[in-house]
Amino acid sequence: MTIETKGGYCSSSPELEHWLARHIEQGFGAEALVRSMLRSGYDAAFARDTVAAALGLPMPPTAAAPMRTPMMAPASVGLSAVSAQQPAGSDVAQQPGGNAFRHLGHTIPILFALEAPRILLLQNLLTDAECDALVALSRGRLERSPVVNPDTGDENLIDARTSMGAMFQVGEHALIERIEARIAAVTGLPVEHGEGLQILNYKPGGEYQPHFDFFNPQRPGEARQLRVGGQRVATLVIYLNSPPAGGATAFPKLGLEVAPVKGNAVFFSYQLPDGGLDDRTLHAGLPVESGEKWIATKWLREHPYRSAI
């Protein structure tokens, strides 16, 4: 029997024990497990104690003393970022005019760069093994991808977006934590400015019609999103496989299409120097013509982001 207190549920069960064991085996950390239990209605102290016991930890995690410290990227904020100078000793390097980033021994060549709007195509941001691991991690979470209703702020399903998606909390898994640190190193925006990584799967015919990633503050539903980290300022789309045909990321106002190639990523920023938003970053996920497409999307905010959940 589950006991419910004023703070939430505080009794274990075989189902909870099985859930914990499965997610620990998959590599999820203490903080992510506690957050998931809180969202499911468990008492906070009970959730911390239960997770600590399952992990064999000497003391439960607390908000003031998190269980693990993620590898943080250099806090070089600003969307000149992709050519930002990094602190000495950070093992992040791109010399002015250089053709590649390097992070912890991982080399990421720049295949092309557009200045206005700022768009970069990055080769080998992720290894094949990292791409495959992200796909495997997301399969059990896939749900139809919603969009934010501009008038209400609610998430709705619409015909213009036909993908299936899985959302992950920042730093939820060791693999995601490593990838987020690499993203921060390349973009120059700290990990805390990123929304959770979203994994998307498009079947044949799947597409996302032209849209903007930034929020329109004049629409009440979208304005609500600005309260949890301010405006989105940039997007990174990582290709987790190479579809045989179709599935490019298109920028119709620029006449540009980026082919989906496994491990590559396209970065684009939409904040102008005067603080305005660049509508040339209108973009679309073109229909998949053959096979399927897997991508990971990272949205970056102007301020540290906190989940609206």
UniProtKB/TrEMBL annotation:
Its cofactor is L-ascorbate. Keywords: Dioxygenase, Iron, Metal-binding, Oxidoreductase, Vitamin C. The keyword Metal-binding applies. Transmembrane segments: none annotated. The keyword Metal-binding applies. Residues 193-302 form the Fe2OG dioxygenase domain. One of its GO terms (molecular function) is procollagen-proline 4-dioxygenase activity. It holds the Pfam family 2OG-FeII_Oxy_3. PANTHER family: PROLYL 4-HYDROXYLASE ALPHA SUBUNIT, TRANSMEMBRANE PROLYL 4-HYDROXYLASE. This is Prolyl 4-hydroxylase. It comes from Cupriavidus plantarum.
